[in-house]
Amino acid sequence: MAITIDACAAQHQGDRKEQQDRVAILPHARRKGVALAVVADGMGGHTGGALAAEQVVHTAKNNLDHFAPAEESPHCMLENSMREAHTMIKASRFMNEKDPHSTAVMLLLQPGRITWAHCGDSRLYHFRGKQLLARTVDHSYVEHLVSIGKITAEQALTHPNRNVLLTSLGGQEEPKFDFSDTADLQAGDAFVLCSDGLWAYFDDGEMATLVADNSARNACEILIDTARKRAAGEGDNLSLAIIKLVEAVSSKPTPPAGFVPRAKS
Fold first, then answer.
1. Which of these, 94, 92, 89, lies nearest to 174 by C-alpha position?
2. What is the full DSSP assignment across the chain?
3. What pLDDT tens digit does each residue of the chain (265 aa) get?
4. What are residue 115's DSSP bridge partners?
5. What b/e string do you get for 16-39 counting C-beta neighbours within 10 Å, with b at 16 or more?
6. What is the spatial distance between Cα 239 and Cα 38, in angstroms, rounded to a whole number?
7. CB 205 within 8 Å of CB 130
8. Residue 87: what are its φ and ψ, rounded to 5°?
């Protein structure tokens, strides 16, 4: 039995002059059932942010192509992708005299297991039907204020410093990464990776319902259209990738290999 997924990646430039986000869903070059989803939100002025985000996707793809599950853990693969992207982005500032940075969120799909990592405020949501099971915690100033009880989650959405990050790829300091994974997978599970240009316009429940009630492709279209309307002409770049498990196997002694993507964009 194959793992069947319904997947889609999409983005919109928003009301910015340039698209500095990058998003991709990448199958492993040789191993069936292994794929990587990536969202990167670049920063750093004209072209600088785009180059940084592009470097994140390029590095992740290269690491995925060389990923051998029997020899390297998913955690190590994702961490190496982040660290190498950070090093390459830092090096690029000396070549192009820009100040590039990028956030990143990555999800590695293997039969019976999903592992993810993030740096910055691009997010991953794990839904089961219309229930939120997990969400990454932003590496941002306002998320820190929420965690220590200074402000509420609702106040964070309109806080004047909501765009201040505590870490990113390409900065002077070593970046901070957080990791998580799950082997408890069921048909109906959905994973959403997105930049802040999208998640800022939705609460968890609304996003869960839209994803559960629609195909991955239709959910991407609805989420983008709704975010654009709510931005009222002042929207950021927005990018997202949705992976819905149509059939799933939790971690068993001999999980089946291979997945059949239903849709990609």
1. 89
2. --EEEEEEEEEE-TTSSS--EEEEEEE-SS-TT-EEEEEEEEESSTTHHHHHHHHHHHHHHHHHHT--TTTS-HHHHHHHHHHHHHHHHHHHHHHH----EE-EEEEEEETTEEEEEEESS-EEEEEETTEEEEEPPP-BHHHHHHHTTSS-HHHHTT-TTTT-BS--BTSSSPPP-EEEEE----TTEEEEEE-HHHHTT--HHHHHHHHHTS-HHHHHHHHHHHHHHHHTT-PPPEEEEEEEEEE-----SSPPP-EEE----
3. 457 899 999 999 999 999 999 999 999 988 888 999 999 999 977 678 999 999 999 999 999 999 999 999 999 999 999 999 999 999 887 666 578 999 999 999 999 999 999 999 999 999 999 999 999 999 999 998 988 899 888 888 788 888 789 999 998 899 999 999 999 999 999 999 999 999 999 999 999 999 999 999 999 999 999 999 999 999 999 999 999 999 876 554 433 334 344 444 3
4. 108, 181
5. beebbbbbbbbbbeebebbbbbbb
6. 10
7. yes
8. -65, -45
Amino acid 159 reads H
